[in-house]
Design goal:
heterodimer, A: alpha/beta, 5-stranded mixed sheet, two-stranded antiparallel sheet, 9 strands, disordered C terminus, B: alpha+beta, 2 helices, globular
Chain lengths: ~220, ~160
């Protein structure tokens, strides 16, 4: 009798340990926090004043130095990204390409898209050229020195911060994924959300193309 | 002897329970519309997207993925913080009971990091999705060019250049 009771106790103890082991084994895995301190820098995200501020920068494309003001008279869409960007930039640029492909040829001629690399350490202008053209021939890849790129981003209120891979692999860059609209008279007039629908982009482009149709429209 | 048999029964129950649960988890999961996005020239990383459906009554957790085309495969999510997109590795993607998880650009995705050879449009890549219980699901995913809309004349001319008549 006694041995039977102790056997039951031992069995129950073992079962208890087993249950605990299973509970540990199937425990929920809490998402790891891998936040980088860019939040405070987001305060400057509203720094670009829509509708008023004239913007300009000098950077380089595969064909040499370029200035944003070279494109006066055209609507310019500016996007800050980098070619190692695995998802966000291709998603944004694909949406932009869909918008470009929906425009009439004369509208397309009055438009320029600039893909500004915030990763000049890895993005050569040649690499940028190939990357941008993959999406649409009207997208020009440009970059500059770290300082030049930082200054251009600051002007637009775009922020970016390097994020090192926890596994020690290649770094990624958190970056503003808005598309900035520069009017034909060189003012920053709008910001479009990430991966904005082609129709929205096309509407926005047409809105700013109208005044450009008459040269008098440019002050 | 009866003492041992009782202990043995408990031990067997305890040890067998997890593997018994594991037996059919992947059977509850299906993946629809899976594709790998063709990366632009020179790009070594890209995403794989699909809709995961769980026909079971308990949630499923996708905890890992692998594929033969890239050196590393990770599960990722995006956070949009005031227009700043942050891509982060996540420990799992949950597929709710009788529900679905949508893996799409700008959101949850399987990330192919450091592709071994440049991917070709139309190439088929088999993704192996590993569930929390150790079972896995093989998902064939063709490499697809991103949707760039209907490319008018210029694009057609460029495409035609590859296939001269």
């Amino acid at each position: 009798m006694k041995t039977k009771r102790s056997a039951v106790i031992v069995a129950l103890l073992l079962a208890g340990i087993g249950v605990a082991a299973v509970a540990w084994w199937v425990r929920p895995v809490a998402p790891r926090s891998q936040e980088v301190p860019v939040r405070s820098r987001l305060a400057s995200a509203g720094g670009g004043t829509d509708g008023a501020v004239a913007v300009d920068f000098t950077l380089r494309s595969a064909s040499g130095p370029m200035r944003l003001s070279d494109y006066r008279g055209r609507v310019v869409l500016v996007y800050f990204g980098y070619t190692f960007c695995p998802d966000i930039c291709p998603t944004s640029l694909s949406a932009t390409a869909r918008a470009l492909n929906s425009l009439r040829p004369e509208e397309l001629r009055a438009l320029q898209v600039l893909f500004v690399s915030v990763d000049p350490a890895r993005d050569s202008v040649e690499r940028l050229g190939e990357y941008a053209a993959f999406f649409h021939p009207s997208i020009l890849g440009v970059t500059g020195t770290e300082v030049e790129v930082a200054e251009a981003a600051r002007l637009f209120g775009a922020v970016y911060a390097r994020h090192d891979s926890p596994g020690g692999g290649a770094y990624s860059i958190d970056h503003t994924a808005l598309t900035y609209v520069v009017s034909p008279d060189g003012r920053l007039v709008a910001r479009l959300p990430h991966a904005a629908e082609a129709a929205l982009v096309a509407t926005e482009v047409r809105r700013w193309l109208q005044p450009a149709a008459s040269p008098q429209g440019v002050p | 002897m009866p003492r041992f048999s009782v202990v043995t029964v408990f031990a067997i129950l305890v040890c067998a329970a997890p593997s018994a649960l594991a037996a059919g988890a992947a059977d509850q999961l299906s993946a629809d519309g899976a594709y790998v996005r063709l990366p632009p020239p020179g790009a070594k990383n890209t995403g794989a997207f699909m809709v995961l459906r769980n026909k079971g009554a308990t949630p499923l957790k996708l905890v890992k993925a692998s594929n033969p085309a890239s050196k590393v495969t990770e599960l990722h999510a995006h956070l949009n913080e005031g227009g700043v997109m942050k891509m982060r590795q996540v420990p799992f993607i949950e597929v709710p009971a009788k529900g679905e998880a949508i893996l799409k650009p700008g959101s949850l995705h399987v990330m192919l990091i450091d592709v071994i050879q440049p991917l070709k449009e139309g190439e088929q890549i088999v993704l192996t999705l590993g569930l929390e219980d150790g079972t896995s699901l093989a998902v064939p995913a063709p490499v697809r060019r991103p949707d760039l809309g209907v490319v008018p004349d210029a694009g057609t001319a460029a495409a035609a250049a590859h296939h001269p008549h």
